[in-house]
Amino acid sequence: MEMGIPIPMDNFKNMSVKITTVAKQLPKYSRTTEEIIPFLDSWLIGQDERFIRKVKKIFEGATVDKRYSIMDPIEVFANTTFEDRNDIYVREVIDLGEKVLEKALQKLNWDAKSLDYIITVSCTGIMIPSLDAYLINKLKLRQDIVRLPVTEMGCAAGISGIIYAKNFLKANPGKRAAVIAVESPTATFQLNDFSMANIVSAAIFGDGAACVLLSSHEDDNGPEILDEEMYHFYDNIHMMGFKLVNTGLQMVLDIEVPETIASHFPDIIHPFLAKNNLKIEDIDHLIFHPGGKKIVQTVEDLFLNLGKNIEDTKEVLRLYGNMSSATVLYVLEEIMDKKPKIGEKGLMLSFGPGFSAQRVLLQF
After folding, report:
1. Which of 199-203, 292-296, 310-314 is predicted with the least confidence, judged by mean pLDDT?
2. Long-range pairs for 49-53 at CB < 8 Å and ≥24 separation?
3. What pTM does this model have?
4. DSSP three-state, residue 212
5. β-pairing, 29-32 with 66-69?
6. Burial 278-294 (b: 16+ CB within 10 A, else e)
7. What is the DSSP letter of 205?
8. Residue 10 clears pLDDT 80, i.e. is over it
9. Residue 260, SS3 per DSSP
């Protein structure tokens, strides 16, 4: 049998997967919370006065100063069909995806054809072909690029995409990958649904896009992914997700989500760090997905007891709201822009339908 040239095992031992850059792209429309309140008056006409006051209080207390949207608020609060909203979603998601991928490539001066793997993430609309197919054509990516659309993992999918990219790159040294998350929760707003799930989601969510570029090239630099892991909660499928109804994607959001996270928190954090010979005290940067005010408060209390803070998470929620899968990537960009010291460690954490938690351990 003909023998090939052996590849030294040290090459694989020393080969690492790095996050090389993060870019974000915001939609063209935006409104402050103060500017949204008058739209609530029109939406809630005929409702009980106490209920109206409660809804306004939820919006004002959501700790979200501003929300961006692919639609003007007039369109958001209009009685449009699912088809019309989804058509806007498809059009705008393609535009945002193209812009954010181009922005990330330009930050590193990478050629689009240098990408070997493209992962697109979105759960707030329906499109087949998926976003990645459009981006291959728009940016003339390679014809042999490997593509993976991630559509049903909700807020956790930004980290899910990083995990999938890391595993691909670990198995394929010298390659590059892009993870593009584009979400429009405003496209899922249900005009005739006055449930707490629809109201709370409208109060905390906004639209946005982010792109992470990763590499297993020796010459590419960035924080190294030391480890990654998913954690699945048994028998909590009812906690979070979407129900497909005639008017679109109806939010499912259980009131017990924060308490459920809190009860599992030690099992989510400590064994994962222990596996890497670390404790929470060794983590310098917490890169946590800002799910909403109550979830942030729950996790902040848990982290504060461990001597840590999640100020960057709170700031992203304040500036943009919860943009589903893209939001944790905004927090990652905030951290990376601060130029952490060499050797510092970061822990990425997000939660999503399933119910599940996703974790990534970084070393800067």
Report:
1. 292-296
2. 51/194
3. 0.90
4. strand
5. antiparallel
6. bebeebbbbbbbbbbbb
7. B
8. no
9. helix
Q: What b-and-e string marks burial along 5-33, b requiring 16 or more CB atoms within 10 Å of the CB? A: eeeeeeeeeeebbbbbbbbbbbbebebeb
CA distance 172 to 16: 11
Identify which of 7, 46, 17 has the alpha carbon closest to the alpha carbon of residue 163.
17
Q: What is the CA radius of gyration of the chain?
A: 21
Tokens 């030294």 belong to 8
Average pLDDT over residues 30-40: 90
Provide the percentage of residues in the chain whose pLDDT is more than 90.
Answer: 63
How far is the C-alpha of 215 from the C-alpha of 21, rounded, in Å? Answer: 10
Q: Is 271 exposed, middle or buried (0-12, 13-18, 19+ CB in 10 A)?
A: exposed
- Fold of the CATH domain 13-215: Peroxisomal Thiolase; Chain A, domain 1 (3.40.47)
- At position 190, the amino acid (one-letter code) is Q
Q: The tokens of 116 are what?
A: 């070997």
The answer to whether the CB of 177 falls within 8 A of the CB of 347 is no
* Number of residues that this document lists for the chain: 364
Q: Which residue has the tokens 């090239």?
A: 217
At residue 5, the pLDDT reads 47
Residue 60: in which H helix or E strand, if any?
Answer: helix 49-60
Instruction: Please give the helix or strand (H or E) that residue 318 lies within, else none.
Output: helix 311-320
Q: Where are the beta strands (DSSP E) in 3-50?
A: 18-25, 29-32
- Give 138-195 as a DSSP string: HTT--TT-EEEEE-S-GGGHHHHHHHHHHHHHHHSTT-EEEEEEEE-GGGG--TT--S
Yes or no: say if 231 and 268 are a contact pair by the CB < 8 Å rule.
yes
CATH, domain range 224-363: 3.40.47.10
Enumerate the domain spans of the chain. 13-215, 224-363
Tokens encoding 292 = 């909403």
